[in-house]
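hey so i finally got around to running the thing on that chain from the lab meeting. sorry it took forever, my laptop kept dying and i had to restart like 3 times. anyway pasting the input first so we r on the same page abt which one it is
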Amino acid sequence: MNPIDMMVTDYNCEYLGLSRLCLMESAGKSLAEEVGKICNAYNAIDIDFTVLLTHIGFEEDKKLAELLDPNWGIDLIIGGHSHTLLEKPEVVAGIPIVQAAYGTSQIGRFDIMVDTDNNCIHDYEWKYVPINAENCPNDEAIEKILNSYMTLTKPLAIY
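ok and heres what got predicted. didnt touch it at all, straight out
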């Protein structure tokens, strides 16, 4: 499987491009060029919004954003690996970059308004949401299913 690929989906008659990137290398020019090749391969489709999902770390995400050609249309980078908890998106070269730390103590929520005429972000709100009883009450049926697996996975747990 290619470490960089793209999925395009029709969401309420708008085209959303999701590209994933999970390489253990620094964000150099060659990596940016690979992202560009994937984006250029989808030029025939009028993609309204493109998200790059990475797992190369926050500092590498920032380096990568600097190297991306604006014509490739990357609108947002959602990153991982460095487990960085951001109070607000870091905007580099016009591209918001977000992470929501690690584990299951919180999730990131990004509400985005897309300008489909110009295929870019019009407005957004980012926040991280704590995973707790107030925001995410337990679902007893799901909890029962998960608990049935605990005896199988507990000996394998690292944390």
